[in-house]
UniProtKB/TrEMBL annotation, chain A:
It comes from Actinoplanes lutulentus. The keyword Membrane applies. This is Uncharacterized protein. The chain crosses the membrane at residues 38-57. It comes from the Bacteria. Keywords: Membrane, Transmembrane, Transmembrane helix.
From TrEMBL, chain B:
NCBIfam families: SigE-fam_strep, sigma70-ECF. This is RNA polymerase sigma-70 factor (Sigma-E family). It comes from Actinoplanes lutulentus. InterPro entries: RNA_pol_sigma-70-like, RNA_pol_sigma-70_dom, RNA_pol_sigma-E_actinobac, RNA_pol_sigma70_r2, RNA_pol_sigma70_r4_t2, RNA_pol_sigma_r2, RNA_pol_sigma_r3/r4-like, WH-like_DNA-bd_sf. Belongs to the sigma-70 factor family. ECF subfamily.
Length: 227, 167
């Protein structure tokens, strides 16, 4: 016989210490407000500048040429409704790198890390992340997803709970990047948290690489959205 | 201008209850803290208005539930590999052991999000059918049918009776 209310109270009674910092949330929200105000001001000035300068260019017969070729941004799921990024208590940093350039750079870094040609990273407009799926010639698959604005964990160890029923380990690299690796039996899953706000998830079949090799790829400093 | 001290005091007194509600909604303490953090930020943004209404708790609860319902559509962060599924054994009495509690939360987690939310609002937050409908933005009939289906699912999984107290 199960008493629903009693079960719910009991089931939620052993809460771990809260990691929520109310002061941190307040400070983050204040920073966001400041940024919004500054952004609105800058936008207003830019619009005014455009209004003022466009007639000059038109009248003088001056054409505006891009300084350098702009790389195309490969995208997936174009019709999807954009969604916010991962849950976090502070506004997400925004990469300044253009999408096409970032996709090309990440593709190069991953290709070097895997010592194999890899499909180009594409920008997923629904999940707001760069992603690619590599099928290696020697067999096996590896999927890489990179997202901006992930919160850096307070403690690396908290990502591998003691009572986890899967094989979980974590590594902190020299640049303080945290790499969590979970072994599900047939696959590895690596979650990477960089100090700069980049988050990365790698799913790889186990025949491709060892845990240490996966950590090396996941911890590669080039796989960042804030180079 | 936000009265920060008043906000802090209000939040401090209710944080534990919100975290427990969020935990039952999403089945993971880290995700629960994320949900509560989102709710706290939104509460702070609107504290000037919310603090003047009679039941600010309802506002926070609504954010928790709606954020959880939206959350199911996104974020790879929630993908956690598991090697075993929780045993589905019939339990007697209260959830005395850690395993019992985890099993119950796992069973809740197997319910569709809206049904889970209905159960949590009705039997943990002690809301009436009408209040639950208002929180979820649906009709009282929907709340009743979702409750009945959710309880049926739990009865089937637990292999026995589930007793609920009318709210």
């Amino acid at each position: 016989m199960v008493h629903m209310s009693e079960w719910m109270r009991e089931a939620s009674s052993d809460a771990p210490p809260s990691g929520i910092s109310v002061d941190g949330l307040i400070a983050g929200e204040r920073r966001r407000r400041t940024r919004v105000r500054v952004g609105v001001g800058v936008g207003f000035v830019l619009v005014l500048s455009l209004v003022a300068f466009v007639p000059i260019f038109k009248g003088g017969g001056v054409s505006i040429q891009p300084a350098s070729p702009v790389l195309a941004c490969p995208t997936v799921d174009l019709k999807a409704t954009p969604e916010p990024g991962p849950q976090q208590s502070h506004p997400a940093p925004r990469p300044s790198e253009a999408c096409g350039a970032a996709a090309a750079r990440l593709t190069g870094v991953l290709s070097t890390a895997l010592r194999s040609d890899v499909p180009a990273f594409a920008w997923n407009t629904k999940r707001l992340q760069y992603e690619t799926l590599v099928e290696l010639p020697q067999g096996g698959k590896i999927q890489v997803r990179i997202i901006a604005g992930h919160e850096y964990p307070d403690r690396a160890s908290s990502q591998c709970p003691e009572d986890a029923d899967w094989d979980c380990s974590y590594t902190v690299t020299d640049d303080k990047t945290i790499v969590i690796v979970a072994d599900t039996g047939t696959t590895f899953q690596a979650e990477t948290y960089r100090k700069d706000g980049t988050g990365m998830l790698i799913l790889a079949t186990k025949e491709i690489m060892t845990r240490n090799q996966l950590v090396a790829v996941a911890g590669n400093p080039g796989l960042t959205l804030f180079p | 201008m936000v009265d920060v001290d008043e906000y802090r005091e209000y939040v401090a007194g209710r944080m534990d209850g919100w975290r427990r509600t969020a935990y039952l909604l999403c089945g993971d303490w880290h995700a629960a803290d994320d949900l509560v953090s989102i709710a706290l930020v939104k509460l702070y943004r609107h504290w000037g208005k919310v603090s003047t209404v009679e039941h600010p708790d309802a506002y926070v609860r609504q954010i928790l539930v709606r954020t959880m319902l939206n959350e199911r559509r996104r974020s790879w962060r929630r993908e956690h590999p598991v090697t075993t599924v929780p045993d589905r054994v019939a339990a007697a009495g209260g959830p005395e052991s850690v395993a019992d509690r985890q099993m119950f939360v796992a069973l809740l987690g197997e319910l569709p999000p809206r049904r889970r939310a209905v159960l949590v609002l009705r039997y943990f937050c002690d809301l009436s059918v009408e209040e639950t409908a208002a929180q979820l933005g649906c009709s009282t009939g929907t709340v009743k049918s979702q409750t009945a289906r959710a309880l049926d699912s739990l009865r089937t999984r637990l292999g026995g009776a589930v007793v609920v107290e009318e709210v």
